[in-house]
């Protein structure tokens, strides 16, 4: 019995749709594929078509892309979080994003085609899927608004408040790129001089 699988499904489902019954959770467990990643290993690469949604069971990952030769962190995921490349998964087109293990990770891959079949037979799984998409849209909007309207200090404080695990575990260079700051600016924000 893979206890991490059950814990991961419960944590992930509870983060989006806590009312899902045990039967729906079991249907999801049955189609998940366990994958171990070493630190620095990529779950998916630029140019690849994403056929899975990933649940992080153990470890921390980041989604990133390259812009003008620099890597830019778009998202962090850790235990109980979901990794999805929405555009690639929905359109079945190559992605520009990559997902890298920042620590040794255990992820569970949810095959998108099988998941879609489950949404057709289970109202609860359909609702879970909807909640995944709604959450992703909200996170994207909040992040865009943060970049537009908040100071560097406000962005850092919000990340510290909403995702303290990222502050504790992610390299400062990745945190800085996620917050659209240079490492020097992040150092000044953390020191309270900015």
TrEMBL record:
SUPFAM superfamilies per UniProt: cAMP-binding domain-like
GO molecular function, one term: kinase activity
Keywords: Kinase, Transferase
Transferase recorded as keyword: yes
Pfam families: cNMP_binding
InterPro entries: cNMP-bd_dom, cNMP-bd_dom_sf, RmlC-like_jellyroll
Ranges of residues in domain Cyclic nucleotide-binding: 35-120
Name recorded for this polypeptide: Crp/Fnr family transcriptional regulator
Species for this entry: Bacteroides stercorirosoris
């Amino acid at each position: 019995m893979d206890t991490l699988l059950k814990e991961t499904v419960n944590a992930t489902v509870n983060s989006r749709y806590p009312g899902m019954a045990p039967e729906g959770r079991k249907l999801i467990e049955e189609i998940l594929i366990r994958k171990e990643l070493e630190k620095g290993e990529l779950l998916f690469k630029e140019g690849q078509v994403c056929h899975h949604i990933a649940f992080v069971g153990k470890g921390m990952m980041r989604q990133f892309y390259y812009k003008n030769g620099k890597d830019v962190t778009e998202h962090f995921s850790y235990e109980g979080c979901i990794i999805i490349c929405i555009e690639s998964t929905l359109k079945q087109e190559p992605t520009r994003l990559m997902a890298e293990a920042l620590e040794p990770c255990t992820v569970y891959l949810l095959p998108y085609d099988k998941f879609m079949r489950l949404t057709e037979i289970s109202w609860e799984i359909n609702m879970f899927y909807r909640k995944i998409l709604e959450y992703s849209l909200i996170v994207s909007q909040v992040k865009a608004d943060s970049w537009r309207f908040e100071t560097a200090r406000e962005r850092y404080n919000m990340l510290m408040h909403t995702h303290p695990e990222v502050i504790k575990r992610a390299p400062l260079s990745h945190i800085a790129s996620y917050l659209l700051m240079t490492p020097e600016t992040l150092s000044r924000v953390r020191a309270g001089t900015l």
